[in-house]
Amino acid sequence: MVAALVVLIALLGLPLGRSAGAVADPALPDLSTTPSAQLPPVVSAVKPDRTKALITLTKVTPTVVKPGTDVTITGIVTAPLTGPLTAPTVQVRLGSRDITTRTALDDWASGRTTSSGRRVAETTLADVAAGDEAPFTVVVPVAELRTPEAFAVLPISVEVEQQGASAPIGMTRTFLAWNSRKEFEPIQVATLMPVTLDPVVALFSQEQAVRDAAWAKVIGPGSRLSRLVEGTKGSRVTLAVDPSVFGPAVEGAGGAGGSSGSSGSSGSSGSTGSTGSTGSTGTPTTTAPSGTPAATPSPSGTPAATSGGAGATPSATATPGAVGTGAAAGPDAVVSGLADQLAAALRGHPVIALPYADADVAASGAINPTDPPVRTLVGRSSLVAEELGRAARGDIAWPVDGLLPNGREKQLKTIWAGSTVKKLAGIVVDQRAISADSPFTPTARRVAAGGTRLLGYDSRLSAQLPKRSDPTPVLATQRYLAESLVLLGERGGTPRSALVVAPRTYDTDPRALSAFLEATSSVPWLEPVDATSLLTDRASARALAQQRPAQAPPSAAPAPTLTTARLAQMSTQRSTMLSVSEVLANGAVVAATYGELLDELTSARWRWNRAGWTTLGTSVSSDITAATRAIRVVPRSVNLLAERGTLQVTVVNGLDDVVEDIRLELVPNNPRIQIIEQPGPITIQPGSRAIVPVQVAAVAAGKVEINAYLTTADGTVIGTPAAIRVQANPLDSTIYWVGGTLVGLVLLAGIARTVLRGTSRIDEIEDIEAVTAAHAAGEDMDPR
Fold this sequence. Notes:
Blueprint: E1 54-61, E2 64-65, E3 71-78, E4 89-94, H1 102-110, E5 118-124, E6 133-140, E7 151-161, E8 170-179, E9 187-195, H2 208-219, H3 224-231, E10 238-241, E11 272-275, E12 285-287, H4 333-346, E13 351-353, H5 361-367, H6 372-379, H7 382-388, E14 396-397, H8 408-417, E15 426-430, E16 445-447, E17 453-457, H9 459-462, H10 474-490, E18 496-501, H11 510-521, E19 526-529, E20 544-545, H12 564-581, H13 587-600, H14 610-630, E21 631-633, E22 636-640, E23 644-653, E24 659-668, E25 673-675, E26 682-684, E27 688-698, E28 702-711, E29 717-728, H15 733-757, H16 761-764, H17 768-781
Parallel strand pairs: 2-8, 9-10, 9-18, 9-19, 10-13, 11-22, 14-15, 15-17, 16-20, 22-29
Antiparallel strand pairs: 1-3, 3-6, 4-5, 4-7, 7-8, 12-27, 16-17, 21-23, 23-27, 24-26, 24-28, 25-27, 28-29
Helix pairs in contact: 2-4, 3-11, 5-8, 12-13, 12-14
């Protein structure tokens, strides 16, 4: 850059202010109409174990067991690698212990409850070769499952035994949900899932091909986000959307262009010149230096050609971008097309808007809740509504760690109050962080000590959301139903609510998630609702006050990347780039582009890729440092042999953009030299230098150091200053008077001497020619 300067105007080609109505690239597949047949299968391949048989459940019907209906369990048995299964029997056993607590759920699922109970169904399979698979179906008569309870959790164990063996060679444990009649108040259940970018540095690469590939991998067809959006289609799941998933929002840019690499110049110090002339017009002269080295730094942290996902550590080898001066750059068509398709897929979902870039409000609030950039990011949550063309609430905070330590409510209220949103309506928080020890699970509707509504999520229910690594969603579905029935049993007649959330890194199979949501939303004891409905009370379900837990729960995210020093440095960098952009012809693009990168560095996503934050942060720091050093005053030494003279000051522009309306300020360090008039505005072409004449006056002889600064029109110092060393030797009028007097005296002395001596002897000879001739004749007759 100096590539410094448009940072990646090449950067993300930065889709400059992409509009919501942009036309999608016809070459891109449409996310909103991708047929389910093209999605990954619900049943994932299972890697055989070495010594034991594996049991993968593929379906349990019906979802809710009722009187009069048998239960059919289907699945796949995978033989161990060490040998075949000989005439294996698949058995279903019913645990004898009642499941009424969450601890009992854990004990059964983990195998701590050693007895598997009585056998209620079985089927025998043909031999299965080592490492091979065989499907099975077992029908459990409902009579074997009958219970007098209105609702209950039935623990079952599906086991594989070989012919002649006394112990099972494989086992999996799960639960059946029993409900014979309605003797309860349904639980309102809201599900909230984040739609946020992965911490991939290549999203901000200066190489368009690398950048486009990264965006396609993060938001395009088959990406983690597209799978999540596809899997929640048609459900009541509320999606918390980060506006930056629609591409970089660089606004107010007129055009950017240029080529990589720039020519600049570096001045030499210690040169000696003399000035004595006057009458300069004060107009700087701009020249393009020849033979001078280019002022093109090579930032060590520049985003590189990598498109790894969370946790990837990209290398830093990309070529810096450059400030453009001529060609106009439009939005990145690939990124815009992908973003438009993602927006189209989101329009059918309930949504709330996160702060731009999913700013880490938990970390920044603890450091400085009045930080202006973070408040701005909260206000930019409105971009979600603009993109989707409908309302999207931006007044709900979701701290990534899920905690509510002392002071956080006030911190978050301060952040939101200073933003354009103005008021914080609610905070999403782990229920364990706001509840004291109790045998009952509180409702999700809570209220903080300072009066802010809290949306307390149930971490155990949340943990049951199906993951992409699960072979099928069956175990997750059955465990979720069991968890919800235990929750119901705590206070069956009391209206309550529950909130289920996915982590920022949540990854799922779309068909598995869709099947899970369909199964869990159709049971009679759960009532799916929008997450925002939990911000208000029902007549029979009011919010409970926040409580202080005996011990804070673990954080839902790794430690923050934002620190006090980093947040302060980013504020300084933002101010520096705004100042530099004021004197650049392409300044609006420069300011917006670097502002975008600094915004991205506040994101909570970097908690999962700390090395990525360092890579991107180092790149930005290097670029900003290079940009400020590229505009500089060349130091020099001068002999001033007059009372008044003109200093020729050289100002270098090493950027690939025109510098305009920049001011040169000269400040002597002692009064021997006085600046008669500071020079006016200066314009310097890209990769050039300007010779700026400055009128000065020497008051006394001696050495003077003049500090030369560059400033914007409002006086903000930018660029690199320099020292102009002047040896002042003023020749004043006294010297001329003394010299003139001495010359006059010499002339007068000569005239007086002539007058006082009288007439010359030569003048007294009457005939000088005759005397001369006689003298010559006498010399000829001389006998010698």
